[in-house]
Write a sequence for this structure.
């Protein structure tokens, strides 16, 4: 540096005048602190002097004389200007970062009689009034909104199923078989579409329980008839697609279940919305769990009520024998399994659905296996159940046990706060 | 791309491993040189095309062809991964990437003992966070703060060991047990008041954030064929990127070099202003603790400027470990302008940068009005960089400035018969008059910077490389960059700015002198070469202080006895002796050196 001779150096203004208009205000508030220099015009002169003549490091000389903090309180003014920052800050470093983002440097801090921005920020942090009453500031969490797309989609399985049932009633012979096959396929596709979005959508795309669910629904359609026929030595013919005959179709429960997609989605939506509200309102995890449990049970009951009403409606309309117990338990099982899957607990529903489906399959298989020579004892338990309560006992017990297990599981898992956490926080 | 499956039982976050087309080269040996294998860890940066610190990492890797680089990259988003990589030079022998934006639960369900280990470590971690920030100021007794830092480190390494032994950390961090531990810590006596206020959504938010931040713990990088095989880890930024380096240090004793051009903790403070206070308090504590732990474990820390250095010192970095390494700029672009004799219009002031409110162009225009009073012939060119104004705010600000310029300065013409023009012109780089950045600086005699907020002023360095004298406001790292080669005025002081500009406009000789000094200073301090040379020196310094403790294998894969002499385990001196040996022995390869003399083609095995 010295080799370059009279090299100019960056210099701070040499005069004790104001650096900018704000410091001018503070300085003006205490006129006796600087004897010479008259506000902003001193800057001009002083600047000229500093820029043209600052040939030697003049740090000591060029610093403004430390202002005694008697009259004004510059830090207070600074705090007032950055009061948002000060009130918001959780520690001094946050104030320091905010001040620096507003252009405060160590040289600025020196005017507040601080060594650096950090110690200035510490003073500001210490001086922020912290009242006991805090603004109950947490904004409520965003709750999911009901949207037209999934609302319409949840009506789709019901509509398709109703159309299929109508087609079954209007057709005969081979065309009825075709109608049944096409109807089943259409209902499956509609169900898949309805569960792809909205509150019943699973977090991951894979759907491991689809086969088991289809089996359970197929059993609701055909199982009771087959069981009854098997118990009496049949079935002699394939199902004809009617409610009468040796292997009857029970379409009313299936239609009711398909229609119940819409209330199920509504219930899930209600659960999500209410749970988010309770989440933002509760202070502790235990408090949240106790407040969500009645909500969960209420929603469960609501869905069962809706399903009962739909079942009554379809039974009356189709003029079929009522099948309340097995349908209600199956509906409960499917709702709980879906709710758990939606909230990320996939293991238990898969397990319980498998168990239920295999229980039903075993019941059917034992009846047929009993026809083998020497195996008649195999049918005894199932036969006893059928004799006592009728063929509906098998699916009712299987689905009921499954639903009860899942309900117990859900009251433990779905009441956890972490089950209702979302990933949408930006920070 | 070679996606070899992990050879470990536990499948963790998927990490792909790729060798460039040239396959692994055998290390070239240079006479008198040492070959260092560097694990460069970058988060959302190199080698991705859209990475943050891509440019300097690229220059560093290309500049140090004599060393071997293993790149460990954490990608930030799916789009970043889709955009691909920059072309890699041959000294990059391996790239391993891991996505941080998605972590699939690996399906491992912890047994009872693992659950207890997790609960202990995680509970300890959050207890430290709830107890308060790392930087409680001077009021906190030294040893209490050290104990807390120790607890944080132990908890972190406990979690890392659990992830290494058992896997399943992602699921555990998301579990209810984690949230419960967090709640317990927040309600515990002695928790800071903001944490005590935490509500359930806050707890969930913090748990989710911690899960994301701790994802590097689940990587399968910390093995003897991963980060364990490098001679030193170079973390290109603090925070998440430093976490793999910390773990490599913990598991494999690999020294860690940390480079921070912007302090991660400060970025966090500025970014997370919307979150509730409890969340901000806990996350700030986490970042503070993590920074303190990183600074404590790092062998050397290289801040990019003295501002970052001050923050690091404040966060607990040992002053002896700090080496400021200024970012390097490509000087060649400006060589022509910088070395050309002064030919610019002597009455023109130039402002170059991205138009945004923090640049305070309004103040500049007012200052220019003052300049015009003294020097009626003066002109001002405001040159926006091709990136253009940032967002709608920048566009609105540019419009505001143009309107103000039109108000302050009426169009004027040289004579009664010529078409007039405004003395302030708003231009963009890439236009016919200013094709390149260097031309923008060349078009004026004085470069002005009027920012109220500034980090490291790259524009100023460019002006210095162009041998232009500068007038700038005293913000950010400006004084540090300028040294004595330009004029500095207080921010928001148009009159002082005007005075300085007029002084320079009137004095061509001084302008030239200062410009030459500025170029000399910039060439000395802010070139790519100095940056690369500084890192080269730092690498060698670190490896010379860290003797290898690995077993060297022969070609058959058997351990080679006495491959590393006992003296290699003694720190100090040894490098000097090697150098002398080489000098005496001519081009012969030294047999072994503490700085892993990888001249041996033998593969390395586990320790």
């Amino acid at each position: 540096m010295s080799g370059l001779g009279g090299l100019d150096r960056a210099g701070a203004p040499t005069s004790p005048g104001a650096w900018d208009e704000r410091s001018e205000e503070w300085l003006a508030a205490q006129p006796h602190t600087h004897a010479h220099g008259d506000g902003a015009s001193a800057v001009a002169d002083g600047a000229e002097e500093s820029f043209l003549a600052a040939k030697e490091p003049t740090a000591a000389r060029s610093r403004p004389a430390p202002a005694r903090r008697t009259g004004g309180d510059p830090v207070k003014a600074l705090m007032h200007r950055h009061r948002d920052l000060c009130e918001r800050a959780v520690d001094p470093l946050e104030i320091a970062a905010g001040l620096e983002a507003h252009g405060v440097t160590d040289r600025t801090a020196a005017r507040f009689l601080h060594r650096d921005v950090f110690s200035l920020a510490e003073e500001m942090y210490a001086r922020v009034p912290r009242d006991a009453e805090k603004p109950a500031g947490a904004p409520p969490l965003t709750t999911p909104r009901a949207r037209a797309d999934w609302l319409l989609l949840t009506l789709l399985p019901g509509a398709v199923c109703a159309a299929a049932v109508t087609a079954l009633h209007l057709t005969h012979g081979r065309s009825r078989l075709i109608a049944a096959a096409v109807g089943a396929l259409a209902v499956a596709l509609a169900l898949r579409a309805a569960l792809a979005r909205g509150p019943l959508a699973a977090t991951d795309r894979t759907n491991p329980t689809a086969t088991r669910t289809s089996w359970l629904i197929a059993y609701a359609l055909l199982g009771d008839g087959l069981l009854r026929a098997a118990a009496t030595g049949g079935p002699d013919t394939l199902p004809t697609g009617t409610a009468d005959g040796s292997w009857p179709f029970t379409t009313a429960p299936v239609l009711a279940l398909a229609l119940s997609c819409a209330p199920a989605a509504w219930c899930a939506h209600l659960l999500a919305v209410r749970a988010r509200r309770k989440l933002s309102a509760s202070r502790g995890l235990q408090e949240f769990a106790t407040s969500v449990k009645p909500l969960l049970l209420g929603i469960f009951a609501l869905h069962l009520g809706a399903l009962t009403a739909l079942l009554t409606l379809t039974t009356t309309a189709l003029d079929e024998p009522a099948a309340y117990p097995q349908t209600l338990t199956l509906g409960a099982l499917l709702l709980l399994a879906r709710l758990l899957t939606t909230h990320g607990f996939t293991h238990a529903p898969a397990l319980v659905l498998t168990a239920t489906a295999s229980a039903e399959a075993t019941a059917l298989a034992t009846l047929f296996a009993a026809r083998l020579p020497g195996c008649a004892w195999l049918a005894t338990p199932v036969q006893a159940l059928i004799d006592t309560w009728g063929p509906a006992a098998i699916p009712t017990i299987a689905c009921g046990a499954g639903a009860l297990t899942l309900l117990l599981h859900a009251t433990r898992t779905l009441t956890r706060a972490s089950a209702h956490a979302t990933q949408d926080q930006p920070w | 791309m070679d996606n070899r499956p992990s050879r470990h039982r536990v499948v963790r976050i998927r990490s792909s491993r790729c060798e460039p087309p040239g396959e692994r080269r055998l290390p070239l040996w240079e006479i008198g040189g040492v070959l260092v294998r560097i694990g460069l860890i970058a988060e959302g940066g190199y080698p991705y095309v859209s990475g943050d610190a891509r440019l300097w990492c690229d220059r560093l890797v290309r500049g140090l062809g004599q060393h071997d680089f293993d790149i460990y990259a954490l990608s930030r988003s799916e789009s970043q991964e889709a955009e691909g990589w920059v072309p890699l030079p041959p000294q990059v022998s391996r790239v391993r990437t891991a996505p941080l934006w998605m972590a699939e639960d690996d399906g491992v369900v912890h047994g009872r003992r693992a659950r207890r280990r997790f609960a202990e470590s995680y509970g300890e971690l959050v207890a430290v966070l709830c107890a308060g920030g790392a930087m409680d100021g001077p009021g906190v007794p030294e040893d209490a703060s050290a104990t807390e830092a120790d607890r944080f480190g132990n908890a972190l390494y406990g979690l890392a060991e659990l992830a290494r032994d058992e896997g399943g950390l992602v699921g555990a961090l998301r579990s209810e047990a984690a949230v419960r531990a967090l709640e317990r810590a927040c309600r515990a006596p002695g928790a800071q008041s903001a944490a005590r206020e935490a509500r359930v959504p806050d707890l969930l938010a913090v748990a989710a954030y911690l899960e994301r931040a701790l994802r590097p713990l689940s990587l399968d990088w910390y093995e003897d064929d991963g980060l364990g095989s490098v001679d030193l880890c170079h973390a290109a930024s603090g925070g998440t990127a430093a976490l793999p380096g910390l773990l490599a240090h913990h598991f494999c004793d690999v020294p860690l070099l940390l480079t921070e051009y912007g302090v991660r903790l400060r970025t966090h403070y500025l970014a997370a202003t919307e979150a509730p206070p409890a969340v901000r308090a806990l996350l700030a504590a986490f970042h503070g603790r993590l920074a303190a732990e990183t600074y404590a474990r790092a062998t050397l820390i290289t801040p990019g400027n003295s501002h970052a250095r001050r923050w690091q010192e404040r966060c607990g970095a040992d002053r002896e470990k700090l080496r400021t390494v200024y970012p390097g700029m490509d000087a060649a672009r400006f060589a022509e302008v910088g070395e050309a004799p002064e030919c610019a219009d002597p009455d023109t002031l130039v402002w170059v940068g991205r138009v945004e409110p923090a640049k305070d162009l309004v103040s500049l225009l007012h200052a220019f009005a003052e300049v015009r009073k003294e020097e009626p012939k003066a002109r001002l060119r405001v040159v926006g960089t091709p990136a253009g104004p940032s967002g709608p705010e920048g566009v609105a600000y540019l419009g505001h400035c143009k309107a103000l310029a039109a108000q302050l300065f009426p169009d004027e013409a040289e004579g009664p018969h010529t078409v007039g023009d405004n003395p302030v012109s708003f231009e963009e780089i890439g236009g016919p008059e200013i094709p390149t950045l260097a031309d923008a600086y060349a078009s004026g005699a004085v470069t002005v910077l009027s920012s109220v907020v500034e980090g490291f002023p790259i524009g100023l360095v460019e002006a210095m490389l162009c041998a232009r004298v500068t007038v700038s406001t005293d913000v950010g790292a400006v004084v540090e960059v300028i040294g004595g080669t330009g004029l500095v005025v207080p921010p928001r002081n148009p009159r002082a700015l005007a005075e300085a500009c007029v002084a320079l406009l009137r004095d061509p000789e001084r302008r030239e002198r200062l410009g030459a000094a500025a170029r000399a200073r910039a060439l000395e301090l802010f070139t790519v070469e100095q940056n690369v040379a500084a890192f080269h020196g730092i690498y060698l310094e670190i490896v010379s202080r860290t003797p290898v403790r690995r077993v060297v294998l022969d070609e058959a894969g058997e351990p080679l006895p006495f491959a590393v002499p006992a003296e290699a385990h003694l720190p100090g001196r040894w490098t000097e002796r090697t150098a002398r040996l080489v000098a005496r022995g001519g081009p012969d390869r030294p047999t072994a050196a503490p700085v892993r003399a990888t001249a041996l083609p033998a593969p390395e095995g586990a320790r």
Chain A touches chain B through 59 residues (CB under 8 Å). The radius of gyration of chain A is 39 Å. Residues 249 and 268 of chain A are 30 Å apart (CA to CA).
